[in-house]
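Recall the central idea of this unit: under ordinary conditions, the amino acid sequence of a chain determines the structure it adopts. In this exercise we apply that idea directly, starting from the sequence alone.
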Amino acid sequence: MLKRFLKICLLIAIFPSPSFPFQANSSTLITNNPKEIIDQVWQIIYRDFMDYSGKYKEEDWIKLRKEILSTKYFDNDDAYIAIKDMLTKLDDPYTRFLDPKEFNEMRIDTTGELMGVGIQISLDEVTNQIVVVSPIEGTPAFLAGIKPKDIIVYIDGKPTEGLSIDSTVKLIRGKKGTKVKLGIIRDDKLLNFSLIRDRIEINVVDSRINNSSLGAKIGYLRLKQFNAKSPKEMSLSINKLEKHKPFGYVLDLRSNPGGLLEASIEIARQWINTGIIVSTKTKDGITDIRKAKSRALTKRPVVVLIDEGSASASEILSGAIKDNKRGVLVGKKTFGKGLVQSVRSLSDGSGLTVTVAKYLTPSGKDINKNGIEPDIKVDLELSDKNKLTNSDLGTLKDSQYVAAENILLKKFRVETNKNSYHPLKSNLGYALKK
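Accordingly, the structure predicted from this sequence is:
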C-alpha cells in the first residue's frame, strides 16, 4: 500500500519534509494588493512548475490568469482562497500555498526544533486517507505505540474523511501540554490514542560501537531525518566512531522521511569520496549534477538499512551509495518520493512550495514512485515489529541489523584470512627456488 502514497511527509506541527531549496522572491516590498499576490503565484507556476501528473496544460493556465485577474478581491484572505483553488487544478499535493503564519512556522521548523506529537503523515492518492508514514523516535506518538501504515480516521472526535494534509495538521497542532485524541485504524480495528502535545527537539543521529562475535567493531549510525542540523551531527558522529577504528559501519535510514536537499548532499559527501551524488531535471530538461568533493570522512565498508519509510533525501543518499558501489543496501524497497520542491516567499509574507524538478540517481534512475531497491531484501520479522523498542534497533534483536552486520563480518573474515601469516604458504615459493 505504501507505494500508492503521494508523500507529503509532514511532521505533525511542522512543515513537510520533502527535499527542497529555499528561494526568496526578488521583491522585498510588502504589498497588500490581493491581485498582485495571486499573480505572483501564477507567474511562478507558469515559469517553473514541473508537471508529473500530465494534467497541466499551458494554454489552460494562460486562460485561467485572465479569469482570476478579472475577479474582484476584497482582501488577502480572498486572495488566499483563490490561490488554493487555483493550485488544486495542478493535481499536485506538493505544490502548496502557505499563509504568512504557516510560512514563518515552516522556516523555523526546518531548523530541527519541532512542536507537536511527532509523526510523519501522508495522503493515500487512491483512498484519500491520512496515513502514518512513521512516528519520530522518543516523541509522544512513538511512545504511545503509533506505527507506520496506521490510518488516522478521527482527530478529537472529528472524522478526517475529506480533510487535506494542511487541515489535518491544524487539528493536531496545539500548545505544549494540551491533549489531542487520535482514532486510528490498524488491521481493521479502531484504536484510540490520547497524546499530550510537546516540544520535540530531535537529535537526528544516534551512534555507537557494537562489538561483534568475531571481535570486529561495527559502527552503528541511525539518521532520523535531514534537517539543517543533520550534516554537522553526522560528521561529528563519524569522527567520534572513527577513533575506535571500526571495521565497518551500518547506516540506518529506516523510517527516515527525508528533509532538506542540501543536507542529503552534504551527508553523501561524508561517505562518498568521488562520483555523482544526484542530478535534478527540470521541465526544460536542464540537469543540475551534484558531485562528491573528495572529502569523505571514512573509507571503511558500509551497509545501509532501508525500508518503506525511507523517502526523499533518504533515497538520494541510499541511491548514491548504491550506484557508486560505495556500500550495500539491505532491507526493503524505499518509498519512492523523487520530486523537488522549491520554496518561494511572496511579497505579503506568505509562501509557496512548488514542484520544480525530479531526482535522478547517479545511474539516471527516476526515484519518484519507483523507489530504491535493496541489494539484499530482508524483512523485519513480525515478532520484531511487535516487540522492538527504540533501544533494540541496531542490536542482535533487530533482524535487519543482524543481516547487515553479517555482511560486514563476512568481509571481515576474508580480510582477516588474507592478512594472516601462514608459514608453509609464505615460504613454499622461496624453498622451491633453492
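The first strand starts at residue 5 and ends at 11.
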